[in-house]
Design brief:
It contains twelve helices and no strands. The protein is mostly helical. The protein starts with 46 loop residues before the first helix and ends with a helix.
Length: 242
């Protein structure tokens, strides 16, 4: 089976689509999970605490090695700042996965329904092959942020990895109902449809994917061409192979 399109652990990592851009500037451009009823800033925190946390965010975005220390300084001043714990997890995710996970768990200690922390922990568990635990985290994130396409897409990935293809397909379709141009959900749905021989719909979904953008790596073009060939669209297949 072809590889699915999944986000990397860090939003600063290269996008898995092969564009050469950072994930957050490409398919992660939709931004973090919005909106769960989360405690963004502790009631006792001050404007200075908020500015310190946002300084850490800017340092991280710019690749400044001081970002983690600045974020920890912000947390010393406001230890119940959920947004700062989530940020610390993202900062540490590429260099210290265990510490990143600990930061996201601390976010859940403060706000047990925080969707962003659950989403990150789900990603971490899925990367480690702990699909049952990942499913729990994703479903928890969806309770706080229902219909979020990024969470639905990643839940689909972990369900597909455990052979639950029907539930995975439902997740991809729900993600696309929320965001019809979600590239990850389109690519993953096309791949799943291809494996169960739903060729015409596979071609249709690939057409939608390529309408969103066309600068895909060769492997995606080849999968599309194979589906077109099996649907007897030989001219389309030749174009894709070309």
């Amino acid at each position: 089976m072809s590889a699915a399109l999944a986000p990397p652990a860090s939003r600063n990592a290269p996008c898995p689509c092969g564009s050469g851009k950072r994930y957050k500037d490409c398919h992660g451009a939709l931004g973090p999970i919005a909106a769960a009823p989360a405690v963004a800033l502790a009631p006792t925190a001050t404007t200075a605490d908020l500015l310190l946390r946002e300084r850490a965010r800017i340092e991280w975005t710019l690749g400044d090695a001081n970002a983690a220390a600045t974020c920890r300084a912000a947390l010393e001043r406001a230890p119940d700042d959920v947004a700062a714990w989530n940020l610390l997890g993202e900062i540490l995710s590429g260099t210290d996965p265990a510490a990143a996970s600990e930061a996201w768990w601390r976010a859940l200690d403060v706000d047990p329904e925080n969707a962003e922390a659950s989403f990150h922990l789900g990603n971490r568990q899925r990367e480690q092959g702990e699909h049952a635990a990942a499913t729990i985290h994703y479903e928890r994130a969806l309770r706080a942020a229902p219909g979020h396409p990024g969470v639905l897409n990643n839940l689909g990935l972990t369900l597909e990895a455990t052979g639950q293809s029907e539930r995975a397909e439902a997740c991809y379709r729900q993600a696309l109902a929320a965001d019809p141009e979600h590239a990850g959900a389109l690519a993953n749905l096309a791949n799943l449809l291809s494996t169960r021989e739903a060729i015409r719909e596979t071609v249709s979904v690939y057409d939608r994917l390529f309408a969103v953008r066309r600068d895909w790596p060769a492997a995606v073009w080849i999968r599309r061409a194979m589906a077109q060939s099996r649907a007897q669209d030989l001219s389309g297949a030749v174009e894709s192979y070309g």
